[in-house]
Write a structure and sequence with these properties.
Helix content is about 40%, strand content about 15%. It is α/β, with parallel strands linked by helices and about 280 residues long. Helix 2 packs across helix 3 and helix 5 packs antiparallel against helix 8.
Length: about 280
């Protein structure tokens, strides 16, 4: 992580971000079981051409917890604070899984602040994208054990097995395990609750910025067909399937993921303008 700096974004709650590089802002947003460390390989790949910033969402990593239930829209309002902190009129938004849902929600609320979207291994809603059986499995592996008294590290093995593809390395599995074990239990439960009612499916056709969809070929939670369906609905979007990757395509196949990401952002680099490091 040489040259990657941690910065704290003032406000309530205070947010932690890792950042490197200069130029147009790229905001990297992790999944529901992740944190900013999931994006280290992408920060290192982007830093020569962009100001790459990966956050800990509220209630994750070194960001503060918060009182009361989660309004999912607070993530988008937190992201505005990040853009304002670095004086970025617009940003390239890159979100995986929950991060992709945050990116969609951000676009629906603040379209004028979005340069491009990169939606990775994500969905536009839970009810329409997942069968009742898959929703029940999602809750069974995550919410139910924690409400019964277990801690995040107690569910990490099962979650890793359910998320990674068959070709995931030991290093990739460990990185995911570590981020799950580090979850803030109460904030994680609140995030699950808010996510289950998330639905931005009606706004998909109104996405007007350049959009890239990246999906792991072995993703069982959000299979590539979900990405292809979004691709058909988002005008002018691009779709790339990452071979030999599961749900954490940016970790499991970082080389292929970074190549697709850099090729896309390189074409649209200056849509975001500059930002202050």
């Amino acid at each position: 992580m040489t040259g990657i700096h941690t910065t704290f974004i003032d406000g309530t709650p205070r947010l932690a971000v890792d950042r490197a590089g200069s130029g147009p802002l790229v905001l990297l947003m992790h999944g529901i079981g992740g944190n900013r460390s999931n994006w280290t390989a992408q920060i290192e790949a982007l830093r020569d051409s962009f100001h790459a910033v990966a956050w800990d969402a509220r209630g994750y990593g070194d960001s503060e917890d918060y009182e009361g239930p989660l309004d999912f829209g607070e993530f988008a309002r937190d992201a505005i604070r990040v853009l304002d902190r670095f004086e970025a009129e617009k940003a390239h938004l890159v979100g995986l899984s929950m991060g992709g849902r945050i990116a969609q929600d951000f676009h629906a609320r603040f379209p004028e602040r979005v340069a491009t979207l990169v939606l990775c291994d994500t969905m536009s809603d839970f009810r329409g994208s997942m069968t009742p059986e898959k929703r029940a499995e999602f809750i069974r592996l995550r919410q139910a054990p924690l409400k019964a008294g277990k801690e995040p590290r107690d569910i990490a093995d099962a979650l890793v097995d359910s998320l990674v593809g068959p070709d995931a390395t030991g290093s990739a599995r460990r990185q995911l395990w570590d981020s799950i074990a580090a979850l803030h239990k109460d904030s994680y439960l609140k995030t699950i609750e808010a996510s289950l009612s998330f639905d931005r499916s009606a706004e998909i056709d109104r996405i007007s910025v350049p959009t890239l969809l990246l999906y792991g070929s072995h993703d069982r939670l959000t299979p590539p067909d979900i990405g292809r369906a979004l691709h058909r609905r988002i005008p002018g979007s691009e779709f790339v399937e990452i071979d030999k990757a599961g749900h954490l395509s940016n970790i499991e196949q970082a080389g292929a993921f970074n190549a697709a990401l850099l090729a896309f952002l390189g074409k649209h680099r200056d849509r975001a303008g500059g930002s202050r490091a």
